[in-house]
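Re-running the complex after MR caught last week's input typo. The corrected sequence lines follow. Everything else is unchanged.
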Amino acid sequence: DSGVTQTPKHLITATGQRVTLRCSPRSGDLSVYWYQQSLDQGLQFLIHYYNGEERAKGNILERFSAQQFPDLHSELNLSSLELGDSALYFCASSVVPNPYEQYFGPGTRLTVT
Amino acid sequence: GENVEQHPSTLSVQEGDSAVIKCTYSDSASNYFPWYKQELGKRPQLIIDIRSNVGEKKDQRIAVTLNKTAKHFSLHITETQPEDSAVYFCAARIGGGTASKLTFGTGTRLQVTL
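Corrected-run output:
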């Protein structure tokens, strides 16, 4: 157990809908990173927050957004969902703002039907 | 843009043999190179990492080597066991300061056969 928690574990929704994925970092970690992993694909970096501020963006679609709250948990919002958004979404956390030693949560499996 | 290439995509070895996975990166400013192991349906787990000021690092049966000149790094697993079967991802820290990020390779599926 890495200490990073994610909810829900599974999510099934229809095209066009909007969902929110939640991540709680390890105690003391200020950074949260979001990744997308499609079937048989690698890990695609989406976005990084440090202590409530956005620090880096990857190939995140405009339909996706994220935020980090004062208690350091983070939410990833996915809207106007398409079939191709079906994937595992992981968050990871680290102590420092730079991505040394990232620890991953268990992931949320999103299925868009 | 930033790119991390990983080879091979699949690797099958017999129990007790060694396994080597190689990655190359494009950004010469990269300074941190972690390796993650991901079992089916589970989270990626950090198994070893190396920083650019070190050429080699070992942890029991696993080791990582880094060649900054050639911009490649490798994972070595000795005396492989069935529980080593998983997908392994390399990554490189691309960019500088707080705007940096990890770019991952495409993964190597390692199968250790009895």
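None of the earlier attempt is carried over here. The mean pLDDT of chain A is 92. The two ends of chain A are 31 Å apart (CA to CA).
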